[in-house]
């Protein structure tokens, strides 16, 4: 089934396996289903702005998605990688991201191997990365390798949630309600996110529900 809904940054659709195919996945005990989706209930269900805000907290966002530019800047005396954030896009998407948050995300990312002194916040939307390399002959390679890795740094959200759409549920005698559909896994992390009613949030992945809530809930 293709479900049309509002992506928190626009209009989107999501394919969800239902009916006989999904029943077959359950009966065959498929541990990795084709379209895992977490059905999220919000603490405030009638406010679309609140829904967008919470969606931004759980959808995985990479630095490359919110950066205006990531450039290697070289002078006769120094070289660095300058990251410029697209603050207009960040605000439109209701993401709580600035240069300080990006710095912390970079430092926590495995494989990049940078220390506090290697990443400098220049202002709220701009930061500078100066990698350390003992072997001067490898410095050029280090810069270009780091530049290729930075766009993949996760700066917001849950790394197993690929996408979130907002589903508007029309009510006849009440205000319309909004629910989130999170494409991916990570039920426990989603349930614990601020603004989400964890008691009313579930997943179509019975094995994840079992791991998170126990055998009785999963089956």
UniProtKB/TrEMBL annotation:
Pfam families: RNA_pol_Rpb1_5. Keywords: Metal-binding, Zinc. One of its GO terms (biological process) is DNA-templated transcription. This is DNA-directed RNA polymerase. Its EC number is 2.7.7.6. Coiled coil: none annotated. PANTHER family: DNA-DIRECTED RNA POLYMERASE SUBUNIT BETA' N-TERMINAL SECTION. GO terms for molecular function: DNA binding; DNA-directed RNA polymerase activity; metal ion binding. Residues 1-216 form the RNA polymerase Rpb1 domain. Transmembrane segments: none annotated.
